[in-house]
Every structure is written in C-alpha cells, then in structure tokens.
C-alpha cells in the first residue's frame, strides 16, 4: 500500500516543463493587402526574437509581378537584399512595395537568413498586394501570417536582381481571358509593346549589374576597407563573402564576413558615399586586436589583467573605425554570466577616453520561487489528503462508532479484538501481509485502549502515552505495534514464526484479562 502511495505522489509531482528554444519569427496581420491606386504600399512586418543579444543577418524582399497578359505571360521578379540586425524581443520593419496607377496584384516573399551555431532560414508565407480602384471596406483577409524556420544553406543573394520569365498561353486560354482578342498570338512570339517592355527591363538589369561591379571595385580600392582587410588577415582571418546593396556605383551599403581557421568570425559593415567609406563597424564574439593606442596603454593593460584575475574573459568586440578615429567597446564575462564593459576612444593616434562599467545587478525575480513553493504546497496537501483518506482509514470494528451499521450500545472489546485477530490470521494465510499487519495492530490497540478505560480506539502514539502515564508495562506492546505498522506500510515483513509469536502475545493479553 505504501508503494502505491509513493507512486501516486510521484505522478502528482510530475509537471510539464516548457523548453524555450530561442528563434526569430516574422509575421503580418493578414495575407492580402489592398491599396488604392497611387497609394504607397507600406506593409508592417512584426519581428520577434527569442535571443538575448542582437542577431545580424540578411533580409530578402522579393516581389513577383505579371507584366503581360496577351499571348504570353511575363513575370517580373525583383529581389532586394540588405543586412539587418534583429534586436531582442519584439520589433517591426516597414516593407515598401511602391505604388501603381493601374490595377494589379503583386506577390511578396520575405525571408531572413542568419547564423548562430548553424545557418537558419526564416521564411514568411507569401502575401499578396492588390492595387485597386476601390479597396474593400474590410481591408482584406484578416488571417495572420507567421513564418517558419528551417536549416539554411548559408548562401544568400549578393545583390538585387530583376528576372523576366516568359510563359506561353494557348489561343483557347487567351480567348477566354481576353474577349477583345480575336486571334491568339503564336507561341514564343511577343507583341511589339511586350518586346519593348522586356528590352527595357533587361537594360535595367544590365545597369544594375554594372552598378554592382563598379560598387564592389570602389570598395576594394577604398583605403579604410583595405587597411581593415589587411589588419584582419594579419590576425589569421580570411574573407568569406561580400554582401552589398548598391544604390549606384558610388553609393550603397555593404557587409563582409571573415572567418579564422579556429572558427572565430568577424563581421565588417559600412556605407559608401561618393566612392569613399568614411567608417566601418567591426563586430565579433572573439577577442580580436584593438587599436594600437589602446593596446599600448598601461591603464588598459592593468585593467585587463585585473579582470582576468577576477575570472572575466573577453567574449565580444565592437569597433567603429575611421581613418583617424576609433570607438572601441569590449565585453568581458565571467562563468556566472556577469558582464563588464570597457569603452575607449582614440583620435589621431592618441587614447582620449577609457572607462570601465559593470553590468547592474539584476533584481532577483522571486515569482518563480513563489510559484514553486505554491505548487509544492498544493502537491503536499493533495498527498496528505490521499494519505488520510485511503491509508489511515481505520478498520470498522463491529459495534464501534467506526461501523455505521452498529447500534449505539457498549461493545465487548475482548470479543471485537479476537475477531480482528482472526481476520489478521486469515489475511496472512492469504499472503495479504499489509492487511494482516493492519488487523493485528487494530486488535491490539482496541483491546488495550478499552481495557485501560479510554473506551475508544487510539493511535499508536496515543496508546503508548496512556500506558506510560499509568505506569504500565508498555515496551512489549509498543514493539508488537511497531512491527505491525511496519508491515502495513511495507517498511518490513514478518515471517510466519514472528507473526505467530505476535498473534500469540495479543491472544494471551485478551485471554489473561478474561
């Protein structure tokens, strides 16, 4: 019986423990978005990050538009790619799909690629933008759209692009779509206006490619970018990729990723203006070299040595570098997660500022502790009620208040005890040892209590107290009661001889008082 009790309590103590897996999700309020003709199509995109630090990645915004609907279907795919840093918690991005003076629909695809330990690709299901003369009053489908995540390849488009896809349409299909068309255009033969449109779009694509090449060439020749590349190469880093978003050959943003053979990574990003990069930002989780003025400073050297003695190690480096100035932010962290920040500035080869800041102590959140205590108290209360209800139930004795069928008359406690003793022997013979221990203990408690004037059944501790108070011999009685209780709660067992001795002792007590 005790085993069943413990099993039940164990089941009550099992709770579902939620596992929070850090991830990034994209979502919008609806799938279909309606805009009036001439209205700018701005789509709010909600970004939720489960990470505690900003996550850098690549945002891809792709639109697919049907350009032609006479004879052939032409699909124009425009791809915009740019770097984006997602902050912890919730943030938002406003995606702009332009405007239109004619009614049309544009399919929009949004994705975000980032790397934590492995590349991750976050994809938002397709949403549709409708440019119409009169938008519906409801504003379109209100079903929210939420992204899904999957393992990424680590490869993302390096630039924007425009792609033309031509699909032939049969005469029967076209005649059904356009009642004004009397004769379908033969396959692979575009009307004159469609051919001109295709040539114009291909010309724009070639121009984009030329701008891309010119931008990256200017980037390679920039003195600050070259110096940064040489400095990282001297530390053992090699450049793995360049992701750029040129606005022209002379303007735009870029991001370059570097990796060491040992796995450390560095990201360098910035903006080119008029063929020149005024500053770059270096970010790394590795302790890369800082600028020479800071490295040579004795105060900084002493500060770093003291932090090392206190168990703090560098785990993040942020540098903002220009040709003659630098801002350095270094993060140190100990094994308990406490962080210390070293901030410095240099100008013209001299250290102009150096400070050390310790992360404020996070207030202790007692709510989880209180919740655990409350849950534990509830479980203990349930276990106690089960114990009282099922395991401490007293065996009804004929003629006692515990027997609801018994008349309210004095009982023959000697006879009742003898009856319980017979039940104990029958239970033991049937291998029901717990019941045997319970009946035998019940018989002894009932007889002794009534014999010494209590006139009610008592617990073991109450009975021993009664015997002590009356200067009675109680040690042998206590020993038999304890052994019966042990058998009841599976703390021990009685072999046949020991059980027979206990029964004989109880029977002698009953007979000796006759």
What would your notes on this structure say?
The structure is a single chain. The protein is of the alpha+beta class. A hairpin with a 1-residue loop joins strand 4 and strand 5. Among the domains are: 24-168, Immunoglobulin-like (Sandwich); 394-512, Four Helix Bundle (Hemerythrin (Met), subunit A) (Up-down Bundle), CATH 1.20.120. It is built from 12 helices and 19 strands. The model is unreliable at 14-20, 158-162, 168-190 and 392-408 (pLDDT under 50). Helices cover 35% and strands 32% of the residues. It starts with a helix and ends with a helix. The longest helix is centred in the middle third of the chain and has 30 residues, at 192-221. The strands form 3 sheets. An 8-stranded antiparallel sheet has the order 12-13-14-15-16-17-18-19.
């Amino acid at each position: 019986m005790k085993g069943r009790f413990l099993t039940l309590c164990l089941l009550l103590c099992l709770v579902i423990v939620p596992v929070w897996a850090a991830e990034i999700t994209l979502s919008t309020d609806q799938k279909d978005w309606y805009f009036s003709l001439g209205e700018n199509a701005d789509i709010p995109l909600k970004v939720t990050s489960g990470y505690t630090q900003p996550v850098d990645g690549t945002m891809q915004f792709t639109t697919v538009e049907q350009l032609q609907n006479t004879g052939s279907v032409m699909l124009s795919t425009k791809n915009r790619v740019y770097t984006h840093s997602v902050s912890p918690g919730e943030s938002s991005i406003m995606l702009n799909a332009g405007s239109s003076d004619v009614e049309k629909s544009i399919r929009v695809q949004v994705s975000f690629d980032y790397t934590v330990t492995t590349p991750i690709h976050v994809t938002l299901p397709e949403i549709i933008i409708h440019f119409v003369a009169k938008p519906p009053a409801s504003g379109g489908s209100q079903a929210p759209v939420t992204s899904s995540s999957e393992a990424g390849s680590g490869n993302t488009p390096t630039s924007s692009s425009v792609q033309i896809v031509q699909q032939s349409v049969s005469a029967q299909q076209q005649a059904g779509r356009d009642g004004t068309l009397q004769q379908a255009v033969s396959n692979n033969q575009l009307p004159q206006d469609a051919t001109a449109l295709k040539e114009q779009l291909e010309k724009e694509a070639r121009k984009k490619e030329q701008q891309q090449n010119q931008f990256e060439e200017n980037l390679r020749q920039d003195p600050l970018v070259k110096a940064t590349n040489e400095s990282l190469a001297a530390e053992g880093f090699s450049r793995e990729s360049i992701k750029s978003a040129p606005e022209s050959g002379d303007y735009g943003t870029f991001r370059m990723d570097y990796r060491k053979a040992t796995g450390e990574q560095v990201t360098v990003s910035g903006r080119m203006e008029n063929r020149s990069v005024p500053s770059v930002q270096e970010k790394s989780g590795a302790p890369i070299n800082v600028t020479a003025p800071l490295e040579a400073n004795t105060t900084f050297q002493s500060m770093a040595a003291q932090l090392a003695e206190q168990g703090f190690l560098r785990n993040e480096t942020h540098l903002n570098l220009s040709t003659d100035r630098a801002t350095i932010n270094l993060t140190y962290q100990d094994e308990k997660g406490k962080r210390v920040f070293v901030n410095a500035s240099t100008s013209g080869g001299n250290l102009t500022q150096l400070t050390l800041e310790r992360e404020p102590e996070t207030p202790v959140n007692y709510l989880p502790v209180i919740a655990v205590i409350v849950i534990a108290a509830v479980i203990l209360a349930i276990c106690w009620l089960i114990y009282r209800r099922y395991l401490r139930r007293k065996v009804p004795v004929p003629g006692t208040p515990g027997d609801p069928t018994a008349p309210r008359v004095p009982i023959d406690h000697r006879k009742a005890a003898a009856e319980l003793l017979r039940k104990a022997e029958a239970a033991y013979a049937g291998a029901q040892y717990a019941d045997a221990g319970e009946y035998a203990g019940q018989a002894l408690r009932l007889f002794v209590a009534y014999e010494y004037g209590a006139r009610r059944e008592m617990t073991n501790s109450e009975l021993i107290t009664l015997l002590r108070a009356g200067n009675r011999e109680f040690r042998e009685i206590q020993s038999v009661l304890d052994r019966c209780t042990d058998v009841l709660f599976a703390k021990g067992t009685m072999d046949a001889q020991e059980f027979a001795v206990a029964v004989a002792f109880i029977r002698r007590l009953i007979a000796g008082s006759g």
